[in-house]
């Protein structure tokens, strides 16, 4: 009897064999023939079953150090990733989860019996690992029980938020000090990991990948949202929650594009005096172009950074203090290193704000505080920097004003109509 019993495979191996056989039988069935209610029931059951199977797999992985040792692998997760041709990052994640479940048996138990799925288990483990190392084991267990119970109600993201405040529920006496230490640790980690990387895409665009502390990103996004989504009404009097429209097509601009317009406007409007000295002068970008190019608005201009822009874009930037135009003669000698009188003075700018109140492009109500001063008669062609020749445009319409694809028509009421040239 003892011999027969010892020859039986382990229950986990029996489970794996039974699952393989069941899946083999079910794989030939077409779920399209199920009723709507049956599909709904099957989807939920298979999802929960997948979490339970993952719990068994991770539990086995947690005690498989001998497998890694036998194969000379860094960990059982690394060995498994190699055997299944998975990414090495997947192997690290599996091992990290397995170790977490081993440290917190209650979470592993909830995953195996179907009360948690993997995403919820990760959220709970992350919260438990952030608790103080010297926390009373009974308090830690109470926190685990509460988070596992709340996983039935909250999605993983909300569960992580709750996890940060879990001590307020299970141990209010130590919660404040833990919250302070947790925030300080997160802030230090964010400062170490923040970075900006820039890639030239080669088609006039560059891509920036920005990782910033959340508090900094929140302030930045608040500024961009204020610039990109001013409250205003459409032509029929109804709220235009979608924001600006392309003057050529009338199509609503997407939110990411409006944020990009807002960022460009914010960068160009930043006063040079607010920037540190760089190369002996306040950080300034110079554009170099010959006199004929500046007057005609056709051709190419070179930036002091080494990049190139169209002459039309250079003329638009010359309306603002964001760029110093260096006009070159036939011998490439500077004829004019900018002229301060090309820029509207602060009193003139205020007078325009009082007069125009908002962007003067027809139908655009971007507030004057977010607009740029534009010379209706180009400054490069002798236009005067006076109120009669100036008008306020938002950054988007200022770009359009300098785009040779558009004609501008000033109406009797002072608004400007944009018409795409045929």
What does it look like?
The protein contains 18 helices and 13 strands. The model is unreliable at 231-243, 276-283 and 330-341 (pLDDT under 50). The N and C termini lie far apart (95 Å). The relative contact order is 0.05. The protein has helices at residues 2-6, 11-26, 36-62, 65-71, 76-83, 88-103, 105-112, 118-129, 137-150, 156-164, 166-170, 172-193, 214-228, 255-269, 291-296, 311-317, 346-356, 395-401, and strands at 195-200, 206-211, 277-278, 281-282, 285-290, 300-303, 308-310, 323-328, 334-337, 371-375, 390-394, 406-410, 416-420. It has 422 residues and is an alpha+beta fold. α5 (76-83) crosses α6, α8 packs parallel to α10 (156-164) and α13 (214-228) packs across α14. The strands form five sheets. It has a five-stranded mixed β-sheet. A two-stranded antiparallel sheet has the order 1-2. A hairpin with a 4-residue loop joins β6 and β7. InterPro entries: DUF222, HNH_nuc. This is DUF222 domain-containing protein. It holds the Pfam family DUF222.
